[in-house]
Amino acid sequence: LALRQLNFIAIQIGRHLARAHRKRPCFLSRPGHPATTDLRVAGCRTALQAAGVVVDQDWHVSGEPSDVDFVRAVLAERSPDVIVCSNDLTAARLIQSLTRLRCTVPDDLAVVGFDDVVYSNLLSVSLTTMHQPFAAIARTALRAMVERVADPGIDPRQLLLTARLVVRESSPELPVVG
Predict the structure, then answer these.
(1) CA angle (103 as vertex; 102, 107 as ends), nearest 5
(2) What is the pTM of this model?
(3) What angle do CA 161, 114, 89 make, to 5 degrees?
(4) Which residue has the higher pLDDT, 102 or 53?
(5) Tag placement on the chain: N or C end, fewer CB within 10 Å?
(6) Which residue has the higher pLDDT, 173 or 82?
(7) Strand 110-112 and strand 129-131: pairing?
(8) 151-178 residue pLDDT tens
(9) Looking at residues 49-53, what average pLDDT do you find?
(10) d(CA 173, CA 19)
(11) 117-123 contact pairs (CB < 8 A, 24+)
């Protein structure tokens, strides 16, 4: 159950990509990524496969998105039509490398991130991303800590806040043809 709850955010991204008719996905993270990235990989894969998209077993690649040679190799080896990035910083660096390679986002390749950081709407192509309610997360965590200090015997619990998909220029939903 916890895995299902934790990767629900990624499932929303996967559903969006299926609705956008993306058929050749690739997931990109930087080396040494945190364990939460693996949950994002699993959630996206689950949603894409449920929508009938074939996801290669090795669809998750790890490398430096600002390394143009690495990005060129990923494009040549995999021919993705979308790259899902583990976070917005990775996506922003990828978009910069794609620009250097004269690859147009989203016409040649869609890009998606996670977190909806301040600059995701300020990139040359605004970034489709998952908005995480950071202020609400902080308030909820503080409230939980205060409650725990006041009552150390309180039962452990999970607190789940809602994230929402923000569709922007980097990965628009494509119109249904036919």
Answers:
(1) 135
(2) 0.83
(3) 135
(4) 102
(5) C
(6) 82
(7) unpaired
(8) 999 888 877 777 788 888 898 876 555 5
(9) 85
(10) 6
(11) 117/88, 117/89, 119/88, 119/92, 120/88, 120/91, 120/92, 120/166, 120/168, 121/168, 123/92, 123/95, 123/170
Joined tokens for residue 121: 């709407």
Within 13 Å of residue 112, how many CA atoms lie on the same side as its CB?
32
Scan for tokens 């080396």, then name that residue. 31
For residue 86, give the nearest of 42, 28, 131, 13 by alpha carbon: 28
Helical axes 88-100 vs 68-78, angle rounded to 10°: 90
Range 16-49 burial, b when 16+ CB lie within 10 A, else e: bbbebebbbbbbbbbeebeeebbbbbbbbbbbbe
